[in-house]
Amino acid sequence: MNFTSILASFMLLLGAGVLGASIMRLKALSTRLPNEISVERSEKLKKIFAMHKSFTFLILLGYLVVVYAILWRVGNFSDVVVGVIFLFNAIFVFLSILLQQRTIKLFRKSYGRGLEIRDALKREHSQLKKTRDTLRRERSQLMATNEQLKRTIEDRKRAEREKQKIAGRLRQAQKMESIGTLAGGIAHDFNNILSAIMGYSEMTLYNLSGDSKARSNLEQVLQASNRARDLVNQILAFSRQSEQTRKPVQISPLVKETLKLMRASLPTTIKIMEQINENGALIEADPTQIHQVLMNLCTNASDAMREKGGALKVDLDRLNLYEKEAALLYPDLNPGIYEMVAVSDTGDGMDAATVERIFDPYFTTKEAGKGTGMGLAVAHGIVKSHGGVINVHSEPGKGTTFQVLLPSIDGVAKSEAEELKPLPRGEERILFVDDEATLVDLGKQMLEHLGYKVEGKTSSIEALETFRAHPDDFDLILTDKTMPNLTGFDLGKECKKIRPDIPIILCTGFSESTLLLKAGSMGISEIIMKPLLMRDLAGAIRKVLDET
Question: pTM for the full model?
Answer without folding.
Answer: 0.51
